[in-house]
Design brief:
With 189 residues, the protein is an all-alpha fold. It has helices at residues 2-11, 27-30, 42-45, 63-77, 81-92, 112-117, 126-143, 148-157, 159-165, 172-188, and strands spanning 22-23, 99-100. It has a single domain (51-188), classed as Lysozyme, CATH 1.10.530. The chain is built from ten helices and two strands; from the N terminus they run αβααααβααααα. It has a two-stranded antiparallel ribbon with strand order 1-2.
């Protein structure tokens, strides 16, 4: 748990830099090739957030793949599948090649140290990423005795910040993050 705290503290800077949250490296640099365009999927495309133009080369995963990943991870970690879907939607818009300006990667935006902690070798691999992110989310829910707001706050800002205020930190990005995920939950049922 201490390693996770240190990892998250190092990953969350004091202030945001840049205009956008997400950035993409060229696919060759990431070790992947661009996915073939997939048909628009209304259930996912209507829920995907507006992302910077750099995302036009990275399509969201098809609904059947997303559903399979979520179902498997949710069952294994005893999580609500709607919660996982909401976190993935907020974190990456279902885009497996998402890379944030802070270095978080993949569908559930795992930082490299967090990915390593949870045995994720390739954070851009959707199966590994969702597996690691689901285990992290389960760990946080256990830590906060099922308090979803605190667990989501810790997923975004780090457990040390949640612990310091015994609640969701008064960080605008974190407040919005928790609010957005909770607001997605009824839409996805």
């Amino acid at each position: 748990m201490e390693l996770q705290q240190v990892s998250i503290q190092q990953q969350v800077p004091q202030e945001r830099v840049g205009d956008g949250f997400f950035q993409l490296s060229p696919p060759a640099r990431m070790g992947v090739t661009a996915a073939a365009p997939s048909p628009q999927i209304s259930s996912l495309s209507t829920l995907s957030p507006v992302l910077p133009a750099a995302y036009t080369d990275c399509d969201p995963l098809p609904a059947d793949q997303v559903n399979s990943l979520i179902s498997t991870a949710a069952t294994r970690e005893n999580l609500d599948s709607n919660l996982l879907r909401s976190v993935i939607r907020q974190e990456s818009g279902f885009k497996p090649c998402a890379i944030s300006s802070k270095g978080a990667q993949g569908l559930m935006q795992l930082m490299p140290a967090t990915a390593t902690q949870f045995g994720v070798v390739d954070a851009l691999d959707p199966v590994q990423n969702v597996d690691g992110g689901a285990r992290l989310l389960r760990q946080l829910l256990n830590r906060y005795n099922g308090d979803l707001g605190k667990a989501l706050g810790a997923y975004n800002a780090g457990p040390s910040r949640v612990d310091a205020v015994n609640g969701i930190p008064q960080i605008p990005e974190t407040q919005d993050y928790v609010k957005q995920i909770l607001s997605f939950m009824p839409l996805i049922q």
